[in-house]
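User: quick one
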Amino acid sequence: MSANLNLFTYLLRLADDNMVLSQRLGELVSWMPELEEDIAIANLSLDHLGQATSLYAYAGTIEAAGRNEDALALTRSEREFMNAVLVEQPNGNFADTIARQFLVDAYQVPLYQALSSSTDQTLGGIAQKAEKEARYHLEYSSTWLVRLGDGTDLSHDRAQSALDRMWPFAADLFATDDVEAAVAAAGMGVDPTTLRDSFDSTVARVVELATLRMPTDTYERTGGRTGMHTEHLGHLLAEMQSLHQAHLGATW
Amino acid sequence: MVTMSTMDLDALRAKIAEIPDPEVPVLTIEDLGVLRRVEERNGNVVVTITPTYSGCPAMHHIEQSIRTALNDAGVEGDVETVFSPAWTTEWMSDEGKAKLRDYGIAPPRHIESAVSITNVPVRCPQCNSARTEVISTFGSTACKSLWRCLDCLEPFDHFKEL
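Assistant: Done. Structure below.
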């Protein structure tokens, strides 16, 4: 694989994580139990959309085949999406949404921190911007996980099941293949396995504060990075891409 | 191709610097620190801006306003968005912070270190009280959080430190 193709693929993987998570969070807008959380979820969604847009736009430049951010987000099929399977999991109840967000945030903070010193200046710049946003997200999701876990019996049980349910999918954030190895060797990208310690210590710290216990399920559902998704992504994309597909090339 | 004199370029920069932020219209893009450079490159004027937040919808609007300003001045030019160095509220001018306060938005605090900032109170822009509390860490736009004053009881927006 050429260096450019590796970088292109890597950028798409980063972008797809953000795009799919943004879409999931967007589904909740106007459906949250409180106005403040509705605003918060919308803002999280917007930040992830912004990060996806920057990454897709840059990926399009690297590919140099005339595909812009819209084409990359809205005309690729389910098997072509390379997001980690965690981000496509349904919103479930509020605890599920928070557990999913928390696991993503705990991964994205060290990810963007490491990418900030990428030898690729454009990617480094996008990461510097995104790191600040990710830190704010982590504060939000941690606060809620603690509040739910250390709350009532009901919220505690829901937070624990949410964490247990999302946990096997989190492994996909750290899956690697030749693409990550190549971009990491070039100093442009990050080998995600090097982020695991930071992720684990964040999770352990917050789980303890939340009076929860670490998930015990050792099953790891990976495959998202090569397009092997859970049944949920297809439905999400069908909705996300429907307007674009129905009016190809429309402008206003 | 028009070659601009330094004076023309300064005048053009001053015009562009006056463009208001669409979401906080009391601030110009200069006050915000969004406008980084106006320069001539190979006979073309290039305006460089940097986003406050990755997904800030105001950026498209700002870019459009800059294009209009260039057009009005009869200048061939382009707008370039850069991410590095990442925008920080430290770039907001003191004048900008004062304008924000007058407008009813508590300006961002000076970031000394991530630890010490929590010891600096967010003051109520109405009565200047330091007895305030956060209602919601996210607000009406990506750059703001929602607060309440415990003395005058008014809710207010706070421009988040970044």
